[in-house]
Amino acid sequence: MTGKHVLDRVPISKSPFGIGDLKKTIPPHCFKRSLIHSFASFFRDLIIIYVFYHLAANYIPLLPQPLSYVAWPLYWFAQGSILTGFWVLGHECGHHAFSEYQWIDDAVGFFIHSVCLTPYFSFKYSHRSHHAHTNSIEYDEVYIPKRKSDTFFTEFLNNGPGNVFTLILRTTMGLPLYLIFNVYGRDYEGFANHFLPQSGIFNSSERRQVLVSDVGIMAVLYVFYHFYVKQGVKATLFLYGIPLFVMSVFFVILTYLNHTHPSIAHYDSTEWDWLRGALSTIDRDFGILNRVFHNANQTHVIHHLFPTIPHYHAIEAREAVKPMLGDYYKYDDTPVLKAMWRDTKECIYVEPDENTEKKGNKIKC
Predict the structure, then answer these.
(1) What is the mean pLDDT of residues 7-34?
(2) Where is the chain membrane-spanning (predicted)?
(3) What is the Cα–Cα distance from 143 to 138, expressed in whole angstroms?
(4) Which strands, in side-by-side order, build the sheet including 146-147?
(5) Whole-angstrom Cα distance, residue 28 to residue 34?
C-alpha cells in the first residue's frame, strides 16, 4: 500500500464492532504465552549480541584502518538493531506477554531494560498509561501533538530548517529527553522524570519499584565504569556506547512511525474512547529489520488491541482481525527514511476537523 492511498483518512466514526467482536476472530492459541518460545527469542538475541561483541572486540582492531572504518559502523548498526529487538522483548515483559508468570516477566524485563539503560518498572507504568489513553490529546503519555495555537511549532518550526532540526533532535535525543525531562510526553504539574519516584508520572504504590528500576540502571552503569577503567574510553564507546545510541535512534523511529501519520486522528475528551485510540495506530514495514524487531513494527495495531499477545502469535492475530477492521486498519509500507521525513514535515499540529459535525475530533494538519 503505497502512494496516494496511504494518505487516505482512517474513519473517525464509531466502529460497528467492539473489542469483544475482534477477540472472537482470533484463534484462542494466539493468546497463549509459551516459556519455550519466549526464552528462545530471549537467548537468540542474547547470543547474537555476544557474538557481535566478541567479533568486534577481538577482530575489528586487527583490521587495517580502511577496513576498520567500514567494520565499526557495520557493527554499530547491527548491534544497535539487535539491541532494539532485545528491548522489544523487555517491553513485551512489561505487558505480561512473555510468560504466564508475572514474576518471570518482571525479572526478565528488568534485566533486559536495565542492560538497555531503560528503567523497567518506570517505563512499564508510564507505558501502561499510554495504552490506556492512546491518542487522547489530554491524557496520552507520549507523542502528544501540538495545538495550532502553539505558534513556536506551527510557525517558527513549520519550515524546511525547522523540520530538519525537529527530525534530528527527535531521532538522536528523543529517548533520553523523554526519560529524563518527559519531552514529547504528557504535561504533568511540576518536573516529570522516569527516574524520580516522586514524579507525577507515578502513583504512591509504584514509587518503590521506580527505585528498583534506578538500582538496575546504576548497576549496569557501574559495570560500564569498570569496563571503561580497564579498556578505556574508545573501547567503551565503540563496543557499548554507540550501539546503545543506535538502539535509542531505532526506538524513536519505531515508536514515532507507529503513532504518527497524516491520516490518523487524535481526539479530545469529548470524542475520545479507548477503542478509537487503539485503532489510531499504524503498522509499518521495516524490511529486513522486521524479524530483528520481532515484528513489533508490523503488528502495532493488534498490540494496542490485545497487548498480552506474544510476538510469535501477533502476525497470525493481525491477519485474523483485519477483515473485520476493514478501513479502520492502517498499514503503510512507505520506506522508513521517506516516511520519517514526510510525517515530520506534515504532522506539525492538530486542529478541529471542520468536515465533521463533532468538533471534538482532532486531526493532524
Answers:
(1) 95
(2) 42-63, 69-89, 210-229, 235-257
(3) 11
(4) 146-147, 349-352, 361-364, 265-267
(5) 13
The whole-number average pLDDT for the span 252-272 is: 94
326/319 Cα distance (integer angstroms): 11
- CA–CA separation, 295 and 336 (whole Å): 15
pLDDT of 172-213, one tens digit each?
Answer: 999 999 999 999 899 888 889 999 999 999 999 999 999 999
Report the C-alpha gap between 117 and 213 in whole angstroms: 10
- Kindly give the pairing relationship between strand 265-267 and strand 283-284: unpaired
Say which residue the cell 526519560 belongs to: 179
**In Å, how far are 56, 61, 74, 96 from 69, measured between CA atoms?**
12, 10, 9, 42
Question: What is the number of helices (H) and of strands (E) in the chain?
Answer: 15, 6
Residue 243's φ and ψ, nearest 5 degrees, are: -60, -40
pLDDT at residue 310 tops 90: yes
* Closest by Cα among 254, 241, 240, 333 to 294: 254
